[in-house]
Amino acid sequence: MTTSLERRNSLYGNDLACYERMVEIREFEKITNALFAEGSIRGTTHLAVGQEALTLGISSTLKPNDVVAATYRSHAIGLALGLSPESVLAEIMGKATGCCGGVGGSMHLCDTTVGLLPTSAIIGAGIPVAAGAALAFQVQKTDQIALALFGDGATNIGAFHEGLNLAAIWKLPVIFICDNNVYGEYSRIEKTTPIEDLHIRAESYAMPHMSLDGMDIHAVRSGLTDAINRARTGGGPTLIEAKTYRFSGHSRADQALYRPEGELKEWQKKDPLLVTEKDLIKRNLITRNEIESMKENMVSELTAVAKKVANDPEPELSAMFSNIWTPSKVAI
Q1: How far is Cα 83 from Cα 8, in angstroms, rounded to an integer?
Q2: What does DSSP assign to residue 204?
Q3: 80-93: buried (b, 16+ CB within 10 Å) or exposed (e) per residue?
């Protein structure tokens, strides 16, 4: 069986492999949504359809020993970094074979072998976690860096400003990526935030910042490369705003009826899969027929995964206590 690290390493310098992983994420999210609709999965979920280029840009640029602290919209970043569809879907379905033993669910994925820290359902919670990891790397004098991936709504909370301030003062090796997908849950950005370009908030902390096209994997890689070099060489943090758009609603129960008419259709013209396909075809790396065949094969593979995972065992009740630590003696 291919390990998470092997899946991660297969992406480096391989644009075709990155595209195939993007297809995997897209089809995985579709199947996950269908499983929720038929009642095969409990709870809720948050899909990242339309945001595949950002996650693959991250995973194909960072080193496996770097760390990523992400949000509850975590399937895409988990798969991009190397988690297998089996381990992610099993976790979503609450199976013991999941990456967290089935006790975390859709919003809490983790695999430290590829640097994925536990994803969090708390808005912006990964920002101080990433800053803390970066501080550890700085103290240990390693060349590792940390990356926090969060939504546009998180730039309005205290943890964002506290995290950036601390990182700027201590020049921590951390990159903050704001996945600006236009909506914070159900509210359009202008309803909650007085500025449109969120990256300029970094100027309050004398921090380098930039905006990039999060629908284009090459744009993501280019912007990340500069930020990574700065962080690894002691230059401190960077705030990157990736302009993206989620094609689905906030969560599985959200039909996104609040969107202006025609907005989704306009953003779908920038679909990261279409952008990448055009680039690969232009460079003679793939044909249209090969693309269609790849998508068909991916659907078949993931359908088989879903059938297999459905029959996997559920965790024992005691599993909820397996990752809780308590000291053997308490000082009084």
Answers
A1: 8
A2: G
A3: bbbbbbbbbbbbbb
Question: Is the pLDDT confidence value at 275 over 70?
Answer: yes
Distance CA 292, CA 71 (A): 31
- For residue range 211-264, list pLDDT tens digits in order: 999 999 999 999 999 999 999 999 999 999 999 998 888 887 777 888 889 989
Tracing tokens 């919003």 back to the chain, one arrives at 107
What amino acid is encoded at 146 in this protein?
A: A
**Type of residue numbered 169:** I
Query: What band does 321 get if pLDDT is binned at 50, 70 and 90?
Result: confident
Which of 159, 174, 165 lies closest to 205 in space, CA to CA?
A: 165
Instruction: Identify the structural domains of the chain with CATH numbers, from first to last.
Output: 4-321 (3.40.50.970)
Provide the CB-side half-sphere exposure for 249 (13 A, CA). Answer: 13
Alpha-carbon distance values, 319 to 22, 52, 326 (Å): 33, 32, 16
Cite the DSSP H helix spans in 72-125: 75-81, 85-92
Report CA-CA distances (Å) from 296 to 167, 275, 307.
45, 19, 17
Report how far apart, in Å, the C-alpha atoms of 245 and of each of 6, 28, 83, 178, 262 are: 30, 18, 23, 12, 13
DSSP of 185-226, one letter per residue? TTEEHHHH-S-S-GGGGGGGGT--EEEEETT-HHHHHHHHHH
Q: Return d(Cα 119, Cα 104) in angstroms, integer.
A: 9
